[in-house]
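Reading a protein record of the kind used here takes only a little practice. Think of the row as the fold of the chain written in a discrete alphabet. With that in mind, consider the following protein and its fold in token form:
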Amino acid sequence: MLVALVAAPLAIPASAAEYERLLNGTFDSGSADPWWASAGVTNRVTGGELCASVTGGTTNPWDALVGQNGVPFETDQSYTLSFDARATTAQTVAAAAGESVSPYRGIARQEFALTPEKQRFTFTFTSTLDFPDAGNGQVAFQLGGQAADNTICVDNVSLVGGVKPPGGVNPNPTRKVQVDQVGYVPGLPKRATLVSTATTPQPWTLKNSAGAVVASGQSTPKGADVTSGDSVHLIDFSSFDTAGTGYTLSVGEDTSFPFDISADAIKRLRYDSLAFFYHQRSGTPIEAQYVGEEYSRPAGHVNVAPNQGDNNVPCRADLACGYTLDVRGGWYDAGDHGKYVVNGGISAWQLLNAYERASRIGDATAYRDGSLAIPEKSNGVPDLLDEARWEVDFLLKMQAPDGMAHHKIHDANWTALPTRPELDDQPRRLSATSTAATLNLAAVAAQASRLWRGVDATYSATLLSAARKAYTAAKANPAKLADPNDGTGGGAYSDDTVTDEFYWAASELYATTGEAAFRTDVAGSPHYKAASLNRGGFHWGGTAPLGDITLALVPTGLPAADVTAIKSAFATVADQHLTAMAGMGYATPYDNSTAGYVWGSNSTVLNNATVLALAHDFTGAAKYRDGVFEALHYLLGRNPLSTSYVAGYGEQAMVNAHHRFWAHQNDPTLPIAPPGSLSGGPNSALQDPVAQRLLAGCPQQKCWVDDIGAYSVNEVAINWNSALAWVSGWAAEKSGQPPTPVADCEVTYTANKWQGGLSAHVALKNTGTTAWTSWKLGFTFPGTQKVSSGWSANWSQSGADVTATNMSWNGKVEAGKSVYIGFNASGGGADPAAFTINGKSCKTS
């Protein structure tokens, strides 16, 4: 609450009228942002007014509040607050200015008598506190202390005064020489962008950490780059390939931020991007042993006061569904405390797909048990599956008795910045079920069932049962769309087209079961054979390409020509990206030709980088691999703002993410965004008041600011970090390695398991064109398994790594033929994820 002080005498100095301190005081956009409401108050914008429904029975005026944080005040400066207001029932309210965090010092307070007729109110005061760059300043209306319910509406709220222009956190200072501030991988292209209006090549020098020149050359003029607003040159220093730290690139007196030539950073990012999800867990304490003391916190939303909790959540009052659900767990979606099935669906899918892709055609050992700093790191299950399960279990809990899935669950009102999860006192409510949410559940549960077959057969069966039930329910309710106006307390996430979700869900169910009914739905979809894949990419509301990825990676009964067509579509779209990127000042796989840069543009960059990565997987062409790294270079600093959008990576990296807990900008006792967190990135629509004030007229790629209040450009979200985790994991796998040899082998692994042991049968198939004269099988156990005996091969084990070599009688394997071997083992855990024969990665089945 705000401590009341007597208002200063009314006097309006000339300087006070210049600077407006409040954001969105007219509510003309139809949104209440960034105005918040306390418990017992519901904010809605109606008829161009902000109307607060206030529950009666409170004792003090400050027991019911509507306010705005981040308001700039300067000591000894005069301010005038003015507003229109009315009340359904006549009531006295107070307007107050002060501090938004403890000790909640007050600046000024004045009471006003409201009537049903709208009136204009004004009062002037002098600030006794100093929050010149927004920080912890607050303006609030105190609406409590009344016995009965009431509705108070305000409009045209304005606070002018002070001598310093408001501006929050100004855009980061830029450099003329733009580089990936983190690092370039040895053996791969190394490019930078020079901002210069010169029409002739400019000399550049590359210096090591000691300041010695190690390479030099001439830039290539590219001219005007409309998307960034810069005139640019290309600098290519790929010929220099000596690993090291602290390199800088200079043109004249302009020098880049320092960077490394090393694969180390991208390999760290693979894990830091995944650590984001443990930070976002709901319903469990975030422990210091995994994240450090700074980021630890008690469990949120577990019915420990002041939380009202997630264990018995009813539907919104207007839905009257007649039941409650226990929806504890899952990941908080973004910077708020909401949990959304359609965002959770694609996020969990991307983590699971990263594991499935690595298991089939990459290296899944990077995700083995113990690879992540999470509580499940010693349970014998690959850690990436453990982290994904935290969300998959939540999705199961969101299934209604009829098989449909609720679209989302969140607070009844938006919570203020900052609000720690365990201190959120808002009631929690389920939104209606929707076809889109139900199909997300069906798709992810089917995918997860496939991956857990060799880990936990009972859980796998539970997942498949839920997937079938959801798919059947969705077919019975094919057009139950989310309400686009359901945006109080959480995002609406409305989606008026669900044919893509039907295709995705059918693809996952077919890949898991092989059943003809699902195959019919897949082949009959208008999205079949990557018909929807284009440069616009995929996202939570456009999920058909997720089905394509599964059908391209998982062996099914589809015609080989159809699978080839899907893979070819990825290469075709990847080529379109590369062609467009060649003409950009800051090369990035992004199509801004229709909607400009949109909310979460950085996730679109990464999802398109996924298309490039898969094109490389399907064809082996190096150009697609290089395109993936160009996308990462853009995100990590080679962009017109000289900023790494990934917290903790680069000398000038995002710090002030829009987040209720990582809110150091608003409360110095709270942390900044942890390393590996991805900012949403440029949004040329400027969809929040802070961005509108700071970035008016910005070129598309410069529509971004590192400010906690700029939620439309600087929020974090699980589906943005899941894209970063997928791409950084893929890039880490490719860093510093030669191209993976073309597989001429296939391994089929089956195991009968019991408590404390197993018996495995392994088939090695020569899928090449020439006979093997000898063979050596290699794989890694992800759990505690130890080979005790074996047959038809010479078996050995070192740590978790197992090898098997041929016997004298079965070393020769003709093309197209197989050899069958096996072993017994003690211990337990998941099945091995990847196999090699004679040093080559093999297809698994």
